Each structure stands twice: as structure tokens, then as C-alpha cells.
Amino acid sequence: MIESTSQVRVRYAETDKMGVVYHSNYFIWFEAGRVLLLDECDCPYRELEEQGYMLPVLECSAKFYRPARFDDNITIVTTIVERPLLRIRITYKVLRGEELLAEGATLHAFVSTDGQPIKPPADFVDKMRKLF
Amino acid sequence: MIESTSQVRVRYAETDKMGVVYHSNYFIWFEAGRVLLLDECDCPYRELEEQGYMLPVLECSAKFYRPARFDDNITIVTTIVERPLLRIRITYKVLRGEELLAEGATLHAFVSTDGQPIKPPADFVDKMRKLF
Amino acid sequence: MIESTSQVRVRYAETDKMGVVYHSNYFIWFEAGRVLLLDECDCPYRELEEQGYMLPVLECSAKFYRPARFDDNITIVTTIVERPLLRIRITYKVLRGEELLAEGATLHAFVSTDGQPIKPPADFVDKMRKLF
Amino acid sequence: MIESTSQVRVRYAETDKMGVVYHSNYFIWFEAGRVLLLDECDCPYRELEEQGYMLPVLECSAKFYRPARFDDNITIVTTIVERPLLRIRITYKVLRGEELLAEGATLHAFVSTDGQPIKPPADFVDKMRKLF
């Protein structure tokens, strides 16, 4: 299992007229968590794209328990539970302090820059093998 | 079953550096579909909020099959399959012409303006009873 | 002078906790107005990009007089006052019915896909010459 | 003069199909800079709103010199040049390292929660008097 913890501070732009964070913005926080997790695995997403690999989202989901609010300091715990083979499943917990606000998941697969499914880069496979 | 069809034209702002629509924006299109469906049920969401009812998203999910691109004319087919009682489950299909690009679902419950769960307004219950 | 009128319906996602549209979203509406104006000039922006031309924003500004709100039907009047040479200046009025909510402007120049400034395509120059 | 320096890391969601940050997102970074500047003045914006004061954007503008890209570490230098009286003018510089990417400005005035112009809170006036 790989786990990474990142922080975001809620932006006013992320709130809506209910006074809370609009739900689709959680997926952008998930992205921030995912990018940091890949950094910490020594596979920065920026470099993956520079090498011609992209990791689009095939599926995503979230459950919302309590609303996040403007200026909250939010923690995102990002986890890869199983060693990724062709597909990468990532899960997320969104917390304000100890309080669990939301949970989510995304599913990804490597595609080439022209959008065709491809195998993960060898370097990525190696690093994941060592981590799991 | 209630079904509503709405149209969006993809905005440049909705694309990302992969050249396709960033995944979280589909949830904003789902919102557009939901708002139109409620209009067509004669329960405009704006009026629900004016009467003190809000319908936050409790859960949401999406699967992405093919990317939407800048300037595409997108159709969102929004459906409520079962008569909503305390919770409302809504499903979405995102199409470009005949081509299915994505599918999704959201789950909602009525809450009061102070965020407490409440029963749906009587008028809403009546209208839903007639529609199902 | 070229003028184009487009419509947007305010999305919940575009509001913030003040209960009104967050200011940066007006620039996305300006984009919608600009894309429609280029369509009406028979120079669709999608085609310009397919031919290797991009029109990034060099400058932008807006003044906000009255807030737009969720579900409002908004009219954007997009205008090119002077025949564009190397730079294109576009102005925008945002209205709710007769009521002027905001005004803005953007300045653009053609760049190639690698980001270098280039002359506008001959076809664009011709069409603009006929329109002014 | 009051000056504050904040950091953002460019999110994938903030890019567009040109491969660079979509222009309207700079205004969201300006907000992040502004919120931190108010924190550092010991007038957190969250508390201003809790006391019934809001600071909507009356005007905003930006000039873009070089594009910001995904994963860039961006510095926002936020400045209030003159002691604010009824209106607050804030300027922004967006840098990647030493490189100036963009500049901007926003103009704000205090309004009450029902949207009426009001005088700044006495505490805010005092703190600004001491800082200038």
C-alpha cells in the first residue's frame, strides 16, 4: 500500500451559494493528492507526460459526509492499495482535522499521447514493484 | 421514469492539456441536466431553494468512455428511474450525436438551509407521485 | 463593427458563498461570446486551431455593476469595434434582460502552436476586411 | 505599502488545450494571494464575513506575458499600495522563480451581507492606519 498526505486550503472560488464547497471541486483536490503521491513514488506525473504517457480518469466517484467550507485547511489522504498493473485504482479521504468529510476513488489507465491504451512505462512498473 | 434532454457546447475553459474535457466538468454538466429536468417537472430548483429546501449531492460517480472535446455539441440525457422518496437518484448519459461519451449518477437528499435533513416539500411529493 | 449576442444560463457551480456568480466566471462567458462571434464571422475558433493558429488572451479586464445569480438567463453582447490587424480587441456587455451587469474586454494575438507570434491567417484577414 | 507572498502549484484542472493555464484561473490565484495578505494584516477574510462584511470584486484586470504550465511552482506577490479608505485596490504579480508571468489588479469595496455598500469595520480601519 502506498499512501500520501497533501494539504489544500479551501478557495472562495470553490464554494457555491449553499456556502460550502461545490462537489465537483473535490475531484480537483483528488488530482492534487494523486500528483503528490506520484511525486513521492519518484514518478512525477509531469515527467510521465513528457515521456509520452498520460493517465486519464476512466471512472471516478465520491461520497460526501460533511461539507468543506471556505478557508478550511483540508487534508487529502491518497492511497494505492494494490500494485497497479494495467489499471491504477486510487482512493482518497478528505479530512478537516480528524473529521472525515468525504471519500472517493478514481480509476486510471495509461494511454499514449494519441489516446491509445498502452502498457505502463518500464520504469513505473519497476518502481511500483519495489513499493508493493 | 422521468427523462430530460439538455444541450451544452463545450467551452475552452473546460478542456485541459490533454486536449479534452477535464473529468470534473462532467459533474457540472450533470447539474445543468438536473436543473432542466426539475424545470420540466415544474419544480424549478431555484424555487425549491427560495422555499428553504436545498438538494446537495451526497454521492456522485461517472465513467468515461470517449473524451469530449472543445466546441463539441453535447447532449445530456438525465433520468430519474424510481419515484424519489427521501433520496433522489439521478442518472446521466453524455452523448455527442449518437456516440455515448460518459455515464454518471448522483444521489441527493433534501436539507434545510441550515443543513439539516428534511422531508421533501409536499408540492414536490405530489408532483413526483403524478409523474411516476 | 461586428457584434454577436449569445446566451448563458447561470450554473450553480458558477456561484460562490456570497450567493452570486464568482467574478472569474465572467471571463468564461466572454469566451463563449467570442467563440460565437467568430462562428458568425465564418472563422470558427476550432478551425483556426486546426489550421495551427491560437488566439491566447494577452490582457483581460472586467467591471462588475450588479451580481448575476443562479439560474439567471444572461445575454452576452460581444463586439469587435475596429478591424483587427495583428491584435484583436474584443469588448463584452453582460446583461440580464435590459439590466447591465458587467462589462469587459480582452486583447488577443495570433500565435502558432509552439507559442510564437504569427500573422493572422490570410482567410481571416480577408473576412475581417469585408466585415469592416 | 503592504505586501504578501503566497505559493500555488499549478493544477492539471487549471490548464486548457493550449497546454497552459487558462487565463481566468489567475484571478483565483489572486484571491489566494488576497486572502493570505488579509491574514497577515490580522484581518482574516473569513472573520470579516462572519462579522457581516463582504469584499466583492468591483473591477479586475490582468496582463499575461508568459504562460504558466502544469506543475509549475508559482509565486503570487500581492500588494496594497495605498491605505484603503472606502475602496481597496490590490495588485498582483505572478512569478515562476524570477520570471514574471502576469500582473493584475482588483478593486473591492465593503458591502453588507444584503449587498449594500457600507463603511469598513472600525477594527479594519485601525489596523490599516497602523500599517500605512
CATH topology name of chain A, in short, is Thiol Ester Dehydrase, Chain A
What is the subunit organization of this protein?
homotetramer
The major beta sheet of chain A can be summarized as:
5 strands, antiparallel
Helix amount of chain A, in percent?
Answer: 10-25%
Low-confidence stretches of chain A: none
The total count of strands of chain A amounts to 7
User: What separation lies between the terminal Cα atoms of chain A?
Assistant: 6 Å
Order of helices and strands of chain A: EHHEEEEEEH
For the record, what is the CATH homologous superfamily label of chain A?
Hotdog Thioesterase
Q: Round the mean pLDDT of chain A to the nearest integer and report it.
A: 97
Q: What is the percentage of strand-forming residues of chain A? A: 35-45%
What's the quick description here?
Chain A is α+β, with helices and mostly antiparallel strands and about 130 residues long. In chain A, about 25% of the residues lie in helices and about 35% in strands.
Write a structural description.
4 copies of one chain form a homotetramer. Chain A is α+β, with helices and mostly antiparallel strands. Chain A has one domain: Hotdog Thioesterase (Thiol Ester Dehydrase, Chain A, Roll). The first copy, chain A, has 3 helices and 7 strands, in the order βααββββββα. In chain A, the strands form 2 sheets. Chain A has a 5-stranded antiparallel beta sheet with strand order 1-4-5-6-3, covered by helices on one side. The first copy, chain A, has a two-stranded antiparallel sheet with strand order 2-7. The longest helix of chain A has 16 residues. The N and C termini of chain A lie close together (6 Å). Chains in contact: A-B, A-C, A-D, B-C, B-D, C-D. Chains A and B meet through helix 1 and strand 3 of A and helix 1 and strand 3 of B. Strand 3 of chain A pairs antiparallel with strand 3 of chain B, so a sheet runs across the interface.
